[in-house]
Amino acid sequence: MKKATTRLALAAACMVAGLGALPVQAKVVTGDIGKLEVAQVAQCKSANLTLSIQPSGEEGIAGTEFSLAKLADIDLSTQVGWDAVGELDAAKAAQARTEGTWRATTDAAGDARFHDLPVGAYLVSATVPAHGRNATPQDFVLTLPVGSESGWDCSPKVFAKMDTPPESTPAQPPAESTPPRPPYPPFNPPTLRPEPTPTPTPTPTQTPTRPSEPTAPATTPPQSGTSQRPGLASTGASVLGIVGIAAVLILAGALLARRKRDADQPGQEGR
Question: Among its keywords, does the record have Transmembrane helix (predicted)?
């Protein structure tokens, strides 16, 4: 009963596409294993795998590198191994112990091919090129071989599922329409600034006044070629001028009087 339940759970983890191509719909890809016998896995000595990226719009598909890390201690030829795979996801597989890694890069058609892989469970991850056009495939766990309607498929082709941005959830309106409360302004404590100290205005210094000294009279420098004599008072000079003029007039009057007297006595000269 446990064996059948485990197989049905693993078979429900993915969908089978035509021509052996499996689109990744779950975190663990095993194919349709509900009617298959675990012991028949041994018929696949090795496995070939094609990981494919379907073009979508303007996304690039060439240059994506797929990496396959084989999970250790999982034997798919036993039911215990399949039970261990059923408890895995990509996050748990990333923490598990591995035993070998294989890499391949997608071509212009979006296909990355692997050859001669050991039978087992693998963690599949991808690295996109640096040009930024390629979408990033999701990490997942893959078993080789995978189940199909015709038996165990030792050369499957698996289409990788791309990461999509999470859809934004619209915000739920509040139960009661209350007017929004205005935000309180942040409290900023006042900054205390020191008051400027007034600078005292300097008082002008009183300079003691000295008694005025007598000013010496300005002296006119002597002119060249003229002897300097002490000048007479203006009154004395005027008196001398008047006396001189009077003396000249007296002398002139005496001369005129003598001439007239001589003219009046002409006969006295012959006596």
Answer: yes
Output the pTM of the full model.
0.55
| φ, ψ for residue 61, nearest 5 deg | -125, -20
Partners of residue 120 on adjacent β-strands: 144
Query: Is the separation of the CB atoms in 72 and 96 below 8 Å?
Result: yes
On whether the CB atoms of residues 43 and 167 are closer than 8 A, the answer is no
Gap between the Cα atoms of 36 and 6, Å rounded: 12
Domains of the chain: 2-159 (2.60.40.10)
Gap between the Cα atoms of 185 and 76, Å rounded: 66
Q: What are phi and psi of 143, to 5 degrees?
A: -105, 145
Q: CB under 8 Å to 137, separation ≥6 — which residues?
A: 53, 64, 66, 124, 126, 160, 161, 162, 163
CA neighbours within 13 Å on the CB side: how many for 22?
34
Task: Kindly give the residue spans of alpha helices, DSSP state H, lying in 45-196.
Answer: 79-86, 90-95
Number of H helices, E strands in the chain: 4, 10
Q: Which amino acid is at 248?
A: V
CA gyration radius for the chain?
68
**pLDDT, one tens digit for every residue, the chain (271 residues):** 344 344 534 444 433 333 345 555 458 999 999 899 999 999 999 999 999 998 776 678 899 999 999 999 999 999 999 999 999 999 999 999 999 999 999 999 999 999 999 999 999 999 999 888 888 899 999 999 999 999 999 999 999 998 765 455 555 655 565 666 666 566 566 666 666 666 666 665 555 555 555 555 555 555 554 444 444 455 566 667 787 888 888 888 888 888 877 777 665 444 4
